[in-house]
Every structure is written in C-alpha cells, then in structure tokens.
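Fold these two proteins, one after the other.
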Amino acid sequence: MTTTSLSLPFILTEFLNSYFDISKRMRRSEASIDSRLRYLGIQEKPKHLDKHTFWTEDEVKILIDLIRQRKSYERMGQIMDKSANAIRAKVRRMYSTQSLEEVRKRLEKE
C-alpha cells in the first residue's frame, strides 16, 4: 500500500476535512482524492467548501495573469488558495470553455 492509501482514511475520519484541505495536505488533486476514496471503498466523503463565494475584481485579474503565464488549473488553485475545480468553473463562466489553450488564444487577441 502507498502512503496515500494509508493516510487518506486517517485524515478523512480524524479531521473530516474538505476535499480542498485534503488535497493541499497530501499534495494531490481533488479528483485524485475522490478517485482514491472510491478505489479504497471508503463510503465517507469529505465535506465540500462553501460554493457561494464571490470573486473580487483583483482575483479575476490575477486569474487572467495566471492563464497568460500558462499555469495549470491545479497551480492556479494553489496560488489563489482556491480549488482547481473553482478555477475551472470560473474560467468556464467567463469564456464558455474550460480549455486553457482556447482562452489563451482569446486573450492574445485582446
């Protein structure tokens, strides 16, 4: 068994963290945490963060800069202290696509 397999159930049951907290602590994506939980047959799920937080104008500007710097969703999430899924959803709402390459092409035209 890997270290991830041994420590994930402990982190989940002892601390009942969110996917975001666990992914930061284990340096894995939220999707990999979810996948590992399913693989291990663990029924308990981490709590979800409040999905109703608003983005400030400064955060949007930082997001656009990070996209131009060719950062991944995971790296942008780490830098902005948001989940990769939150970043992906914001990009999708702003540009009607989640393809960072397509968004970068649009930003180059501006």
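Now the second one:
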Amino acid sequence: MQAVPGYFAHDDPSKLPLLAVGFNPIVSVPADDVTYRQVPPRFGLNDESNDRWSSFASKIQKLNEDAAPGTAYKFFLLTRHGQGYRAQLPLFCS
C-alpha cells in the first residue's frame, strides 16, 4: 500500500497551517495549550474549484480504470473528533 502524491496539501508541509512554536506532536500538551494544527481548508484537497470533490472522485475512478490488474485506488478520509474549529473556540473565548 502506498499514497499517491499531489492531491492533498499534506504532501507539502509548507501548505499546511502552521504549528505554534515549540509544538511537539509526540508529547501530550495541556488542554488549554493551543499548539494544535488546524484542519486545512477543503480538508487539504489542493483543488479549489467548486466541483473539487466530484473532480477528485473522477480522478480516482480514472486511476482505477487505468490500473494494472490487482491494483486498486481508494480514498480514506480519517478524522479525529475534537480537532475542528468549533471544538477549539472555547480556548480563544475564555
């Protein structure tokens, strides 16, 4: 299994929202520490067009049509509850 680069901002860390200075993703931080990475716009999809998700689905379909026998391309959107803007809002409003 491997990722196909070029579709999401995650392939280029310079496109992702910045982390606060001193952030260490390995170490747990206190709940009131706002050194988290926000979800990038469009969940990181590079395409900014209005039909970006249907276009992306078409590209995945095309990859599968052109794939070698036994090869399949799939898209998984994995998220973690509590990482969205509204979940962090109380940290800024207190």
